[in-house]
């Protein structure tokens, strides 16, 4: 039987220890990248696109993330064509985050795949896990919204500003509030 590394456990969505040395090296790498990216305000969109392509798993043509931007690892993020993210967005990408073509994300949005055990004994061991987030095409997410672990948002949906999305959102739906509910 092969024993999985903490990184392999993390990527599989299993319980893992976040301060593992291999993961710490990945965090150092992305932190150095964020220093460069967040100093890129004067660069053109194509120059910033090239920086995104260095760090992310996949970046469609014409993506624009306005700095400052933060993420956990970068290598779990996939952006479709023409994705726009406004200032101060944060993606905790301990597992896959996919964002579809032409999706627009307002300032201060947080996309959080990281989760923690409900069992207090496991939390004391500093264990965590992740649940993937999928955001469809042509979605509009208003400023300050929180997208919680494991959520899928369908194509053409609208997430109201400041909403806390705790459940899947159907294609074409508009949701608002805390917790976000369909209008």
Automatic annotation (TrEMBL):
Any Pfam family: Mac
Name of the protein in its database record: Maltose O-acetyltransferase
Highest taxon in the source lineage: Bacteria
Record bears the keyword Acyltransferase: yes
PROSITE patterns: HEXAPEP_TRANSFERASES
This protein's encoding gene: maa
CDD domains in the record: LbH_MAT_GAT
UniProt keyword annotation of Glycoprotein present: no
InterPro entries (alphabetical): Hexapep, Hexapep_transf_CS, Hexapeptide_acetyltransf, Mac_dom, Trimer_LpxA-like_sf
SUPFAM superfamilies associated with the record: Trimeric LpxA-like enzymes
Organism name: Methylorubrum suomiense
Similarity section: Belongs to the transferase hexapeptide repeat family.
Maltose/galactoside acetyltransferase domain sequence ranges: 7-61
Highest classification ranks of the organism: Bacteria, Pseudomonadati, Pseudomonadota, Alphaproteobacteria, Hyphomicrobiales
SMART domains: Mac
Key words, A-Z: Acyltransferase, Repeat, Transferase
PANTHER family tied to this protein: ACETYLTRANSFERASE C18B11.09C-RELATED (PTHR23416:SF23), SIALIC ACID SYNTHASE-RELATED (PTHR23416)
Regions annotated as coiled coil: none
């Amino acid at each position: 039987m092969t024993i999985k590394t903490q990184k392999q456990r993390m990527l599989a969505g299993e319980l893992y220890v976040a301060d593992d040395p291999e993961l710490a090296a990945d965090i150092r790498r992305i932190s150095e990248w964020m220093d460069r990216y967040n100093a890129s305000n004067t660069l053109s969109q194509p120059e910033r696109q090239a920086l995104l392509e260095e760090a992310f798993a996949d970046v469609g043509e014409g993506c624009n993330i306005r700095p400052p931007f933060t993420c956990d690892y970068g290598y779990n993020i996939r952006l479709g064509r023409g994705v726009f993210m406004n200032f101060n967005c944060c993606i905790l990408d301990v597992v896959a985050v996919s964002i579809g073509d032409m999706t627009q994300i307002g300032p201060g949005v947080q996309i959080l795949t990281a989760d923690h055990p409900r069992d207090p004994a496991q939390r004391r061991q500093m264990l965590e896990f992740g649940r993937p987030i999928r955001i469809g095409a042509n979605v509009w997410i208003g400023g300050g919204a929180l997208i919680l672990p494991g959520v899928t948002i369908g194509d053409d949906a609208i997430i109201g500003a400041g909403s806390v999305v705790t459940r899947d959102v159907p294609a074409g739906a508009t949701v608002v509030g805390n917790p976000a509910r369909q209008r």
